[in-house]
Amino acid sequence: MNLSKPPKHIKFLDSYLNSRVCRCLFLISIALIFRAAFLLTTPLAFNPFDYWFTTSSSSSSSYLINTSGKGIDGVVRRDKFLEVPQIAWGLNNQKIAVARAFLTARMLNRTLLLPSLSASLYYKEVDLLQSVTFDKIFQFDRFNSLCNGFVQLGRLSDVSNTTDVFELNKGSGRKWTVERDLDQLRKVEKDSSIDGHEVVRIVGKNPFLWHDHWPVRDYAKIFECLVLVDEIAEEAERVVSKIREMGSQVMESKTGSMPGAQPYYVAVHMRIEKDWMIHCKKLQQRNNVTQICSSKEEIMERVGHIVGMNQQPTVVYLAVADDLLEDGSVLSAWKEGILPFEKKKLGVWDIYKKYPYLIQSAIDYEVCLRADVFVGNSYSTFSSLIVLERSQKLLRMGAVTEGSSCDITARDSNESGTRGIRWPSYAYNIPGESGGPKKWMTNMSDTSLQAISYGSNDISC
């Protein structure tokens, strides 16, 4: 064999590359091959959804969001499960706890088994809790469809071996710090012996007390997937229709407008219950803050000074505990042109009274969420979650941009006639312009849900 002469295929390649154009094409091809090989080794190639949530958050615990190479194809494992104990307290504390359970399951790359909520409010006497499963309040299939690739909800029937369980005891109290809680979750995530179990069962008291490791944006995604079952959604629609019907009648009689006109309505979440006033006064003393409690008179005064409210008769729906309305005091002394209604005066009490507390609260939440103008207390979880969802809706629609001021004018005109963003929200416990309440919008870039869970005067406006 003559080794001094190159093989024929080498000579052909050399001849081919003599062309400058062909040589460039060859180099570009090589570059593309290396680029493709690199992308195949990164999570972005498989899971743009996970990448968006990781890079768009400035969370110091973003480690938890990108699950260390597990589930990077955008599909949550459906053969491994996380089970949590029954969730208690109010509707919105339960929603936060459910979101934390989902985000914990996401970190461990597991499907969350259908959690049990509490229809009653007896949070201290666990044996008195009236249990109701998640799918009796929120749509199971709709949740999985909307949150596909982010988190997954499963049923006990999906588990093949109900005895293959690892129990994870979550601590509580002052010694159970955020760092200890996070360290525990990281160890579980990396421990292959624990990961081998089909079910990880979390045990402990009151899951709503779990420490927070996830940014607001992740919670917002979970909340967007929580769609009420048809029965509850239809009841909320009946209440909203009744509010607008009353508003239409008022406008027709007072302004001569055409019958059937669709007036806007204002929803006010009045926190003036006795237990709330005791709680908020203690908070003020402990935090050395004065703007938490608001009297009935202060709420009425500030709502009456919202810019634009005096342009036409305005129906105001009061979301308030019914036992406070026996003397009708919250319905009187409002500014002229403001027409307050609560469940009984509106004629919808029959809708509410046939349901337990949790569903009543879910209906009221939906009514407030859909209001043209919402006014609440920034230290109330109920109010805070409504504003979070309204802020998320505005961002999704492109009506506002993240980080913008609440004073920026949206592209769409505001039906209520108030200046500023469409579907505005206000915190009546904080004074704003013209003697009215402070405009309120959730900071979706916040690195934790703490401000929403425990209240704050920092309302991003």
Automatic annotation (TrEMBL):
> Transferase among the record's keywords?
yes
Q: Kindly state which keywords UniProt assigns to this record, in alphabetical order.
A: Carbohydrate metabolism, Fucose metabolism, Glycosyltransferase, Membrane, Transferase, Transmembrane, Transmembrane helix
Keyword Manganese set for record: no
Q: Which GO terms describe its biological process?
A: fucose metabolic process; pollen-pistil interaction
Q: Name one GO molecular function term.
A: glycosyltransferase activity
Q: Where are the transmembrane segments?
A: 21-40
Q: Which family does it belong to?
A: Belongs to the glycosyltransferase GT106 family.
Q: What is this protein called?
A: O-fucosyltransferase family protein
Instruction: State the species of origin.
Output: Papaver nudicaule
